[in-house]
Amino acid sequence: MATTALPSVTRVADPMTPVGERLAQTASELFYARGIRAVGVELIAADAGTTKKTLYDRFGSKDALVALYLRRRAERWQTRALQHLAEHPEPGAARVLAVFDALAGWLDEQWRGCAFVNAYAEIAGTDHVALPVVRAEKAWMRQLFTALAEEAGLDDPQDLGGQLHLLYEGAIVALTAGDVHDSVGIARDAAARLVAASPRLTR
């Protein structure tokens, strides 16, 4: 029986002028550091060395910039995760746990934790254009764990993938909101036990 392929990176096709790129980079840094609501277009334009008119001409709205910021972060993380998995090509527990190793390295560089969780806290309950981007990134991660469980030959990979994804998400929130410094390591250990206890799929 064929296994589910790992999800591919969600690419962002956004060729830009130098000014547009500067605005996008500046907005991304500000949104992550200060939050979405706290950052206005005036600040983005000023820090990028341009004008609000140029920002609106390039992107149409602040909300579009928020969505772009999150799509780009998703692409960066997904690329990094898949590159790390490529270093562990043999299906099995080590490959599943490699996702947590990739996460630990990533979070060492992301002092405010998950940009998607942070953004959702600000835009939940609205019709913000970035909400589908947040949900798509979380769905991508669940799909990744499900595919890894399936290729490892573990029974009920959909259910196991969901459980592994919850450990992954919980580790991120516990690290930042809970100040649990070894949360990723704890989640990795729990994932190892979960995988070890999972029955092999009978073929």
Rg, Cα atoms, Å:
19 Å
What is the end-to-end distance? 8 Å
> Describe the biggest sheet?
none
| Helix/sheet category | mainly alpha
Low-confidence stretches at least 5 residues in length (pLDDT < 50)?
Answer: none
How many alpha or pi helices? 9
Q: What fraction, in percent, of the residue positions are helical? A: 55-70%
| SSE succession | HHHHHHHHH
* CATH homologous group name of the domain at 70-197: Tetracycline Repressor, domain 2
Fold-level CATH name of the domain at 70-197: Tetracycline Repressor, domain 2
Number of strands: 0
CATH class of the domain at 70-197: Mainly Alpha
Shape: elongated
Strand % is under 5%
CATH architecture annotation name of the domain at 70-197: Orthogonal Bundle
Mean pLDDT: 94
Written account of the structure:
The protein is mainly alpha-helical and 203 residues long. The model has no long low-confidence stretch (mean pLDDT 94). It has a domain of 128 residues: Tetracycline Repressor, domain 2 (Orthogonal Bundle), CATH 1.10.357. It is elongated and about 60 Å long.
What's a concise summary of this model?
The chain is mainly α. Helices cover 68% and strands 0% of the residues. The mean pLDDT is 94.
Features:
single chain; 203 residues; mainly alpha; Tetracycline Repressor, domain 2; 0% strand; elongated
Secondary structure: elements and pairs:
Layout: H1 18-34, H2 41-48, H3 52-59, H4 62-86, H5 93-107, H6 115-123, H7 131-151, H8 157-176, H9 183-197
Helix pairs in contact: 1-2, 1-4, 4-5, 4-7, 5-9, 6-7, 7-8, 8-9
